[in-house]
Amino acid sequence: MEEWKVPTALGPTEDNDNTSSLVANGTCVNLDCYMVLLEAEKTAIGSICFLAGPITLLENALILGVIIATASLRQRPSYLFIGSIALADVFASIFFTTSFLDFHLFRRSDSPTAYLFKLGGVTMAFTCSVGSLLLTALDRYLCIHQASSYKVLVTRRRALLSLMILWSAIIVISFLPLMGWRCPTGLTPPCSRLFPYINQVYLACWTSCVLILLALILVAYALILWKAHRHEAYMTNLQAAGTGQARMRMDIRLARTFGLILIILIGCWFPVLSFMIVDVSVHLTHAQQRAFAFCSTLCLVNSSVNPLLYALRCRELRVALLQMLQGLCKISNCRKCKGASSPRRPSTEDDNHTASKNEIPRTSITQLNSVSEIVDRQQLNITESGGEELH
Fold it and tell me: How high is the pLDDT of residue 94?
């Protein structure tokens, strides 16, 4: 295996045992000190990547294809944000799976430029995914908190502009190490012990940015739940007790949905970010490096779960997906698929599609069914009370 040696007081090594001793003294002479997985760990983590990688790619590509192929969806800002999440997760499944397996399982040592390019792709994909999640959370917050002026505030042009700014900024930040902001000493301190050639200052800055994005997502969903609870309490005082109880059950259902989203988001990202923060100030051991390698696969798992949490919970996207699959079955003369789906069309999906057109106004972009129902009732109350706003 080709090695890139850096000047050290201890000199070059000839085997991995010597490399381990050098690492213990704070010096790393080649990439072997980052390839720390044992054979059993390679099997377990490799299985996760080989399973989650293709699943993430296929489901996010399918969601992205449905949004692009459906004119009514790609014109709506909320679905543009969902499409941005799907696009970022497609890149994440490609860049992370290939680079992670190539480095940790197949022990391939690339040049610094090639390695930093791959790492920049992984950083870009995951950061854009989190940034798009933030835009989706803000969109839902405005959908609830500013229901009467939502259509004016969130336009397709503004949505595209925000996505362009987000992706441009993140691309620049992700490839800063490739542009020159890398560890000045090669592989020795102050180099990161988690990523070769990465400066600890850059790692601290990137980790702080992701933590800020996650914190803003938490705040946005907390405000959504608070506003929904206030609205349901207000409606309960105006209507009959039976209807009020049904509304409160819907409010609880909304809280459970958002709670699930936040638990998955924090559970997948907090372990990785914790190791990155520790890496800035503490010398990590090989056991901690192996634990980080496992935790990093949780980010890929989060990308595979995102379509289920954000895309497939939208009624109109499910209808469009079903119609696209039925169209593909007709084109390919898939009799089995056609026979299995045709009995369900008139009784369920068509009814849902009709209901979504009649019940969901254009001022309320559907992300979660319960969210759109709250907005509908808000707008109805505003109209009936002569423009009175909820406080």
Answer: 92
Q: Could you tell me the two tokens for 29?
A: 């002479």
Residue 249 CA to residue 252 CA, distance in Å, equals 5
**Is the peptide bond preceding residue 184 cis, with omega within 30 degrees of 0?**
no
Q: Are 120 and 174 in contact (CB under 8 A)?
A: yes
Say if residues 99 and 105 touch (Cβ distance below 8 Å): no
Query: Is the Cβ–Cβ distance between 205 and 148 less than 8 Å?
Result: no
DSSP string, 143-159: HHHTGGGHHHHS-HHHH
Q: How far apart are CA 219 and CA 226, in angstroms?
A: 10
Q: How many CA atoms lie within 13 A of 325 on its CB side?
A: 17
Rg (alpha carbons) of the chain, rounded to whole number: 25
Count how many Cα atoms sit within 13 Å of the Cα of residue 72 in the half-sphere of its side chain: 11
For residues 126 and 129, what is the distance between their CA atoms, to the nearest angstrom? Answer: 5
The secondary structure of residue 196, as a DSSP letter, is T
Mean pLDDT, residues 29-45: 80
Task: Give the C-alpha distances (Å, rounded to integers) separating 86 from 66, 80, 188, 307, 321.
Answer: 11, 10, 37, 7, 14
pTM, to two decimals: 0.74
Give the Cβ contact number of residue 171 at 10 Å. 15
Q: Per the structure block, which two tokens stand in for 341?
A: 């789906």
Average pLDDT, the chain: 76
Cβ proximity of 88 and 174 under 8 Å: no
Q: Cβ of 284: how many Cβ atoms within 10 Å?
A: 17
